[in-house]
Amino acid sequence: MATGYLYHEVFGWHDTGSHAGAFPSNPAAGLQPFIHMENAETKRRFHELVVVSGLIDHLVRLAPRQATDEEILRVHTAEHLARIESESEQPKGGDAGDGISPFGQGGASIARLAAGAVVECVDAVLDGRVDNAYALVRPPGHHAIASSGMGFCIFGNVAIAAAHARAVRGVERIAVVDWDVHHGNGTQAAFYDGSDVLTVSVHQDNVFPPDSGRLDERGEGAGAGYALNIPLPPGTGDGGYLHVMDEVVVPAVRAFGPDLVLVASGFDAGVMDPLARQMVTSEGFRAITERVLAVADDCCAGRVVMSHEGGYNPVYVPFCGLAVLEAMSGVRVLEDPFLPLVSGFAGHDLKPAEAEVIAAAAVQIPAAEGS
Ligand code: 3YP
Ligand code: ZN
Q1: What is the mean pLDDT of each run of 10 residues along the chain (371 residues)?
Q2: Which residue among 111, 243, 246, 278 is least packed, with the fewest CB closer than 10 Å?
Q3: H or E segment to which residue 117 belongs
């Protein structure tokens, strides 16, 4: 088994600047200057753990390239691309569109590299150069919509890679599994009215974007039934995440029968994340990875490409990410030192409120009915 791994140091140079967490600092409002939540450290430290642990020696290193205009314009408007490019030329950079998604001078080329990285990982898997692949990219992508970036995202990395696979590589059916704790609204929107791309988003109920990712968002027109949302209650742990994979995500992907599986891999459902209130441990991320790999084995020869999204605890994200890469490559190199502590927390067992929303999502999968 060969697992592709793509990281580039310049992803750490995507400059979100001085901020008060998610907002621009503003003394009059009491917002003391600090760092932006979406800074280089979680991803850089994940990469450094991959190297220092020695897992890197078991991976096939892939190199990114910039996404072309043609690739970006399959998902975004020309106005959005032009605005990002022009703001990127300014000495102080610009913002992707919602006022909380800043980038520095030259940020457009880093955002192009992030999208192009996922395209390259898809090509590597489709070419058979590797069996599966992980793109450890910044900036993230799953919130970006056609006309705008949002929620720290500039271009829809996963959506662009899926559109590339469809348009250039002739891949007919693609399943996107988004386990970032926030709703994958941008990826969903890109394919909302079509049946070629199934989008499944597992997220914490109504966190970001506001009022997005409700259970009743199911796609429209020809896409009716090809979007799936499972908005889990706050406090969901490993048990709830395993249950949602077994009862909803895996059956939905299996019923769809994709030729390729893409994963929007955020680690902000992690038990120590500052931006959400879920409890997933490195073992939880390992287990949900194994579930995705198993259904992809059955449907499409294990063709899985993961693209990094959120995750904001610089100390814990690396161990969650390493567990995912260990599962993908079948090589174990390191124990998570936090695991004895965090897996002992109360709340990992499936709770009634979690079971309720998972059951409500499960009955929406036609092929799973009565089975
Ligand atoms: C955007 C503003 C508050 C929450 C934040 C979400 C960013 C993210 O990790 N999206 O997946
Ligand atoms: Zn997120």
Answers
A1: 97 97 95 98 99 98 98 99 98 97 98 99 99 99 98 99 98 98 99 98 98 98 98 98 98 98 99 98 99 98 99 98 99 98 98 98 73 42
A2: 246
A3: helix 107-127
